[in-house]
Amino acid sequence: MIPVPKIDRLAGIECYCTSFEGIRGSIKQESDGFRVSELGDESLVGKNISASYDEQHRYPLYILEKKDIDSNHALFEIERECRIRLRVMGIKDAKATTRQYAGMKRVMKNPPAELKSRHTRLTLQGFTKRPLGKESLAGNEFEITVYDAKASDLSDFIPEIDKIGNFYGLQRFGSERLVTHLVGREIVRRDFRRAVELLLSYTTEYDTSMSKEIRARSADSKNYSQVLRALPRGMDIERQVLSALIAGKDAISALRAVPITIRRLFVQAYQAYIFNRCLSASILDGEDLLQPQTYDLCFEMEGPVTFGRIIKFDPAAKTKMVPAVRMAGYTFQPGRGRFEGITKEILEQEGVAAKDFYIKEMQELSQQGGFRQAPLWCINFAYRKDPLVVVSFRLPKGSYATTLLRELVKPRDPVRAGF
What we know:
- 27% of the residues lie in helices and 21% in strands.
- By secondary structure, it is an alpha+beta fold.
- The model has no long low-confidence stretch (mean pLDDT 94).
- The protein has helices at residues 6-10, 71-82, 180-188, 192-201, 209-218, 224-230, 236-246, 251-256, 260-284, 340-350, 401-409, and strands spanning 34-40, 49-50, 59-67, 86-88, 97-104, 114-116, 120-128, 137-146, 297-303, 306-312, 321-326, 371-373, 379-385, 389-396.
- The strands form 2 sheets. Strands 1, 2, 3, 4, 5, 6, 7, 8, 13 and 14 form a 10-stranded mixed sheet that branches.
- The protein has 11 helices and 14 strands.
- Helix 3 packs antiparallel against helix 4, helix 3 packs across helix 9 and helix 6 packs antiparallel against helix 7.
- A hairpin with a 3-residue loop joins strand 6 and strand 7.
- The radius of gyration is 22 Å and the shape is globular.
- The longest helix has 25 residues, at 260-284.
């Protein structure tokens, strides 16, 4: 049995789902080797979008192409350099070449047809009836190169794809630093000071020596001013938090110095950690994630990668149903389903209750809960050797390509392998 890397376990991923031995190698050596394109739903096609402004279609819609920058920082860059504010449906990683939708939040009759910033290019597609929202994202299409693979025959892997659990990837937790969910845990526990301390000073074996030195000095508030002057450009979140603390702000105000789009990720990452632990326990217990069982709550499929309403499993139903996991949140109530009891036990182990996810002190970070599909719903998987191994596939929104790739590659060291 192939051992699960330590960093996966820290993210709550405690098992592999397939018996495939893995082709080894690495990903993301080049941004062009990891391509992502968003798939919009029907609201972004046909009569719902117009090439020109009219009384019904008033909100500009762009295609945002970016490279070597994540979506949140791309939006900050566009606002700074192009003087327009946009919203996107999904957050895309920095180590990739991506193509996604971006929409203006306000009505504009004559928006620029094309815009460029240091890392991005925007091309006007037309106008929509309402501002772009996450509900319009159906999924993502991937084309990914695996470098230095030890094998290129994936015929034994393909039949096992359906066994893969829908784990949140390491990116959700901060990749090599893996601190986002730890900050979220302390926020849920109302230890805001500890949340700030972790954000500033937590280190892992993957941190550079300079980063470790800066974070060690950040553990003492007497060093804040010196640390702020020494921060490299990439530590923008730390800069915002330190600036607030130096100005005499309390821990909650310091956390609020972080932009809301990033701030929300803290508690969401903690939810993801609990989900990963629940899914791991289910798989290790031998549960079939693809086949619904009595008392399961399920998604009703509405399209190839589109999940509809939540319904109770009905063996007589004619529609396709996919098992769903109820997420931790302030509305979480364990029922008789096979996943809910596991989540309840994990919450008890964590020393938190469902109601704790309603955060009165920082209501903007409260998380209701919701549902997430248990299996990784992958379609259109294909591969070629060109001469490197290149795989392509589609996933629903919210699912991680790296979750499939870790089963394909079986990396001994996920961070150094590009995960």
